[in-house]
Specification:
Number of helices: 6
GO molecular function, one term: DNA-binding transcription factor activity
Radius of gyration: 18 Å
Number of strands: 2
CATH class: Mainly Alpha
InterPro entries: TR_Rrf2-type_CS, Tscrpt_reg_Rrf2, WH-like_DNA-bd_sf, WH_DNA-bd_sf
Structural class: mainly alpha
CATH architecture: Orthogonal Bundle
Shape: elongated
Helix content: 40-55%
Organism: Symmachiella dynata
GO cellular component, one term: cytosol
Protein name: HTH-type transcriptional regulator IscR
Strand order of the largest sheet: 1-2
Largest sheet: 2 strands, antiparallel
Strand content: 5-15%
């Protein structure tokens, strides 16, 4: 349901939050998140255009979060790279259905709505503070070990 691009963007945002306020280069983020650096560049450009990260060139450059983790919803990250698409009209273009979705497509849209709401109601800070015993990307960019589970 969610694209690989969304997964990569969420990993990158978590990595930046883990290292905040220090800037991270594309190479550092790629290493920690296990995202191909060339693809990550495109993801980071999308996050930058959406105003979720700052980018600075130069020897001390890199990426930093543009928002506090408490103010950044996961939905903002998702929508910056691959927006969730709700089913608003019949995907089969059946004229009699129009915006009145059939039972199948209504249930599919309800499932999409649930995911959208879960991301909208979850901040980056909540993800980082979750105490289930396994932190996302729990090792920093300066470490040799990375835990993605």
């Amino acid at each position: 349901m969610l694209s690989q691009t969304v997964e990569y963007a969420l990993r990158a945002i978590v990595s930046l939050a883990n290292e905040a306020p220090a800037a991270q280069t594309n190479v550092q983020i790629a290493k920690v998140t296990k995202v191909p650096a060339a693809y990550l560049s495109k993801v980071m450009a999308s996050l930058n255009r959406a105003g979720l990260v700052h980018s600075q060139r130069g020897p001390n450059g890199g990426f930093t979060l543009a928002k506090n983790p408490e103010d950044l919803s996961l939905l903002e990250v998702v929508n910056a790279v691959d927006p969730i698409r709700r089913i608003e009209t019949c995907p089969l273009d059946i004229a009699s259905h129009g915006t009145r979705l059939c039972p199948l497509h209504r249930r599919m849209d309800n499932a999409i709505k649930t995911v959208e709401q879960a991301f909208a109601n979850t901040t980056l800070a909540e993800v980082l503070a979750d105490s289930n015993g396994s932190k996302p990307l729990c090792e920093s960019a300066n470490s040799n070990l990375v835990n993605l589970s």
